[in-house]
Amino acid sequence: MVKKLMFRLLPVQIILAAAGTINMIVSSFFASNCVGQNAMSAVGLYGPLNMFFGAISLMLVGGSSILCGEYLGQNHQEKLRGVYTLDVIVSALLGLLFTAIILALAVFDLTGFFTSDAAVRPLFNQYLIGQAIGILPFILSNQYASFLFVENRGRTTQIAVVVFILVNLGLNYLFVVRMSMEALGLSLASSIGMWVFLAIEAWYFVSGRSQLKFAPHAVDFSECTHIIRIGLPGALSNGYQTIRGLVVNHLIEVYVGAVGLSAFAAANNFLALFWAIPTGMVAVSRMLMSVAIGEEDRRSLTEVMRTALTRYVPLMCIIATVPIIFAHPLAHLFFKDTSSPVYTMTVWAFRILPICLPLGIPCMHYVCYAQAAAKQRIVYILTIFDGVINVALFTAILIPLIGMNSVYHANVINGIVCILIIIIYATVCRKRFPRNMNDLMVIPDSFGAGEDEHTNISVKSIDEAVNISQDIQKFCLDKGMDKRKSFYAALAAEEMVVNVVEHGFARDKKRHSVDVRVVCKEGNIILSIKDDCQPFDSESMNQLTSGDDVASNIGIRMIYSIAESIKYQNMFGLNVLTIRI
């Protein structure tokens, strides 16, 4: 079910990640074709700032997502609402602060440290003014997208992305082509589009239909420290990339010139569309990993990482061939003169940079896991090497020798070095070369239930459902549990699973399954029953377990009477029932 869930949730997260990317591609297209090469340079110069705001947003998304995942795994609904409310408040305040700072830089012409080119700087100032208006919705929309993910409202995000793209295209045509607003028009179009994007996302929460409510009374301001502590290491990667962008831009300006900046900006902005796929993959994995940690589910935790390495990486290898094969047509989208140096540089960018796509997945997922597992040392090591050291260092070494291609090669070398760092880290911690996923992830032996303390059973038919009790009872007895608890656990599992198969499976024509996890630990039996059927309404559960007719729903009533606790929640479109015997 983990693999199935990862691929089911993936499209929405890719679409979300692609929204900002499409915005940059549209800006690059109109800049290069309708305004000029200097405007394209201005778009490229904004890249590090965009990365910085992305880092702030990622810090809040990462920290709040991991906390929400843990609280989901523990079924702490009040704490979940508190984190949601706190995250929205902090995001709004930071968005307003950064808007004021960027406006001041642009209006008072304080941007000399970005570029000394007299032709580019005025256009860059115009571009900043327009972009400043979109900083607040940019940060907030990323937070709401994460919470829509928790609510399993991917369709809302899809609608928001489609509308955003249409608005952005329409306004770019109006402002840049028809009204000749140049760089200001480019940035205003994307900023207004971001406000529309935010409005569509936020409406679901404002309308009162969401499970997550804005609840100031539930806010624990100490959680702000936790959000920052958890999210900061991963966000530092974007922060370091801001520094890397400034360094690399300076090296390009010195050794290649504005033509190099234009080529790199065009290729980078377009390839960001492809990077939306690994970004979406990590967004899914981050939440699933944090839920697994909250549930102390070692098997699901390793399964997420295994899927990333064995399914996601090969998939990205195939996808990466697309821009490599079509390097010339893609370069021609931005630069029409095929004999110009900027065209040649752009072609080489499309031939080399896509190699980074599959190489980046292991590092991105390992940082994501290490964040959730509080392995801060390896997070800091990977983020600083991935974020700035590798690319900046190898670019500085190679650019005097091979020119613009050094930037592209340095990015590929970065991916290889980061994978080696992960392997070396696991080898040092385990004092042996990693032999399995537990070794590679350096999961503590004390985490969750050991291999001999749990079993997992997948049910896809009524025949499998009615036979599940025998397997569970035998497992519990083999682990030394008393006969009474073992019998009750087997009875509870069969009753609940049969109920799901008979009623949940029949609600639609889709193929479904039920995953049952049985844990025997410290004298307790814990059943975790997950299915991918339609959500089971809490009011319906109340009706099943209450009422005057004691003979109705006798099986479920009996389970409620013998269990120490029963908790239900709907999580990412999965029904999750946790029964403690």
Can you walk me through this structure?
Helix 2 packs antiparallel against helix 3 (77-107), helix 2 (37-74) runs parallel beside helix 5 (135-150) and helix 10 runs antiparallel to helix 13. Helices cover 74% and strands 6% of the residues. A hairpin with a 2-residue loop joins strand 2 (514-521) and strand 3. It has helices at 2-35, 37-74, 77-107, 121-132, 135-150, 154-178, 182-206, 222-255, 258-295, 298-325, 327-334, 341-352, 356-372, 376-402, 405-430, 437-441, 462-466, 468-478, 483-504, 538-545, 554-562, and strands at residues 454-459, 514-521, 524-531, 565-571, 574-580. The chain folds into two domains: 2-438, no CATH class; 454-580, 2-Layer Sandwich (Heat Shock Protein 90). 51% of the residues are buried. By secondary structure, the protein is of the alpha+beta class. It is built from 21 helices and five strands. It has a five-stranded antiparallel β-sheet.
Rg, rounded, reads: 26 Å
The description of the largest β-sheet is: 5 strands, antiparallel
Order of helices and strands: HHHHHHHHHHHHHHHHEHHHEEHHEE
SS-based structural class?
A: alpha+beta
The overall pLDDT, averaged over residues, is: 82
Number of domains: 2
**Sequence of strands across the biggest β-sheet:** 1-2-3-5-4
Strand content: 5-15%
Count of DSSP-assigned helices: 21
Oligomer: single chain
Give the low-pLDDT segments: none
Helix content: over 70%
Number of strands: 5
Termini Cα gap = 24 Å
